Amino acid sequence: MEKKKILIxxxxxxxxxxxxxxxxxxxxxILHASKLESFREIIPGSHILCADxxxxxxxxxxxxxxxxxxGQSLYAVINNAGLTYDKPLNFQPEREIDAMLxxxxxxxxxxxxxxMKIFGLLNRGVIINISSVVGESGNAFQSVYAATKAGxxxxxxxxxxxxxALSDNHSIRVLTVSPGFVExxxxxxxxxxxxxxxLGMIPAKRFGNVEDVAEAILFLLSDKASYINGTxxxxxGGLI
Length: 240
Description:
- This protein is an alpha/beta fold.
- It has a single domain (5-234), classed as Rossmann fold, CATH 3.40.50.720.
- Helices cover 44% and strands 16% of the residues.
- The protein is built from eight helices and seven strands.
- It has a seven-stranded parallel sheet with strand order 3-2-1-4-5-6-7, with helices on both faces.
- It is globular and about 50 Å long.
């Protein structure tokens, strides 16, 4: 049987790579990174699409290529690519603000637009947007990043409703996954004092790992999760 095809953005390292490895057994993967050299590991049998999501023209080209090459067979999209520059907003350069808005929010919106066109014709499909706990809780020095992640949650809820309104089939699902404090390259540079503060707020008494999130993604893509739609799944150890 031919494997279903899934796009994973930001798949060259960290969470994206972990998700790719977890899904590679059951699915045929389309992996994105900003450039080919970014990949720490190429998963055998996967397809590679490269684009710098800070560049709107490259995003447009990426979406056209996705539709042209996989418009007849795409099963799911996982919008995982993300970027953060942690600093007070009053010291944040516009170029950093624009980069976060483009990578974290605009690119996923455009990819969702392309996916919805494809899924509308195929009468099925799944979109999972990777948000963050700070999209709801907020976080000092991450105002723009948090805003983009909150936007992804609203996007998922609205698209789930749009899919139902535009089709009687109801086989298109859109949802958000919001990891909490997960140990990746993005969190590696956080000072130990702040890490200790967060650890004290987590009932599970440990930080998450990429496997925790990848396992959840695997389940959410399956038919067993067919009634999970338009919602935000928190994977944060009970972070409060």
